[in-house]
Amino acid sequence: MSNTYQYSDKLDPQKSGWYKYRGEDNTTLRVTNSNMELPGTIRLNNNSGNPIFQGYDGSKWCDFNAMKGEKGDKGDNFDKHVILHNLPGGEGTLFHSEKSEINSDGKSVIPIKSITGGETLLNGELIANMKINNTENNIVLEPVSLPHMWDFVENKINCLKSVPIDNDILKAYGDVSRWEVKYGCHVESGQAVRTINQDGKLVIEPFTYRGIPNPFRENMSFLGIALQNVSGGNKCLVCTRGITSVKISTNVGDHFMSDSRIEFVGQPGLIGEDGFIFNSKVKPSVDYFKAGNFQETGSDGDYRLFKVGS
Q1: Could you tell me the pLDDT band of residue 2, with boundaries at 50, 70 and 90?
Q2: What is the C-alpha to C-alpha distance for residues 8 and 21, in angstroms, rounded to an integer?
Q3: Alpha-carbon span 11 to 194, nearest angstrom
Q4: What element of type H or E holds 131?
Q5: What is the pLDDT of residue 1?
Q6: What is the pairing mode between strands 17-21 and 4-7?
Q7: How many angstroms separate the CA atoms of 3 and 229, rounded?
Q8: What is the mean pLDDT of the segment spanning 213-238?
Q9: What is the rounded average pLDDT of the residues 127-149?
Q10: For 229-254, what is the mean pLDDT?
C-alpha cells in the first residue's frame, strides 16, 4: 500500500492504499476487499449484503465486531484483598472499621470519619475552638483563640507544687512569658525577678535589695517568679500571674518580723533581700514589696505553693 491515489467524485480507483483530495496534503488509509491470505492482513469484505471488516489470523478470516462478550466469573470481593488499618500512636482514627461495608448496589464502601472542630463552654456559651476550611488540596485547621481556663477541680497541692530537684522548669498555672536574663547575673527558680533596661533592651534580673527598700529611689518593678535556673544572656520563663512555687527567703532584714512557718492559706508573701519570698507575722512599719499569697501551710522544705499577683 505504498501508493497514494488522488480521489474525487468522478475518480475512485477502488484499491487499497493512501488517498487524498487534489490540492490537499492530508491522506487517509483505505482497505478494500482482498482474498490474499497473509497473516495480519485486513480487508473490507463486501461479498455479502453487509460489508464487514475482517483480519486474517493465519488460518481463517476473523470478523471485527463490537459485540458484548459472555459475562465472566464474579471476582473476589474488595475486603478479601484490602484491610483498612489505623496506625498506632494517635488519639484519632481515620477508618470507621477494619472492613468496608456493602451498600444496596453491592458495591464496597469505605467509611471514613469526618473532621470536626470542638466547642468550649465559656461563660455559659458554647464557642467553637477550631475552624476547618477545605481547599482544593488541603484541609486547613485554624485554632480559635480563647481565654485559657485552668481546671483545678482534681489537682492536689502535691500535684501543683514543684521543686528544682524534680523539675527543670517549675510548674506554673496562669500567665507565663519568656525573657532574657541580664548579662552578668543569675536567676534561680522560685525567685522574684524585675525588668531592667540593658542597652536599649528590656531584660530581667533578680529582685534583690539591701536594707529598708525605697520604691522612689530603687528599681522595684516586680515582674513575676522565675521558673528556671538561668545565667545571664539566656532565656528564662517567668510566671507573671497565677499559681506556681516560690523559694522561702533566708535573708530577711531585722525590720521585718518573719517566720518560715505558714499558718494559713492566703498569708501575704513578701520579697526578701535575696529575691526569695518570706512570711511576715505583722504588717511591716516600713516599705515592703508583696509578690502574692501563700497557698500552702506548714514549714517543711524550701519551697511553697504560691499565688503570684494580688
Answers
A1: low
A2: 6
A3: 106
A4: strand 130-134
A5: 45
A6: parallel
A7: 95
A8: 92
A9: 89
A10: 94
Range 266-298 burial, b when 16+ CB lie within 10 A, else e: ebbbbbbbbbbbbbbeeebeeebbebbbbbbee
211-217-218-222 Cα dihedral, nearest 10 degrees = 110
What residue has cell string 512599719?
A: 285
User: What value, to the nearest 5°, has the Cα angle with vertex 240 and ends 234 and 243?
Assistant: 115
Give pLDDT, residue 79.
64
Considering Cα of 240, then 243, then 247, then 251, what sign does the dihedral take?
Answer: positive
pLDDT greater at residue 39 or residue 86: 39
**What is the spatial distance between Cα 97 and Cα 174, in angstroms, rounded to a whole number?**
41
The whole-angstrom separation of Cα 259 and Cα 68 is 100
What's the CA gap between 96 and 104, in Å, rounded? 19
Note whether 59 and 49 are within 8 A (CB).
no
142-172 residue pLDDT tens? 998 888 888 888 888 888 999 888 889 999 9
Q: How does pLDDT run across 186-199, given as a tens digit for each residue?
A: 999 999 999 999 99
- Among 226, 264, 262, smallest CA distance to 246 is for 226
Q: Which three cell numbers stand for residue 231?
A: 545565667
CA distance 141 to 133: 7
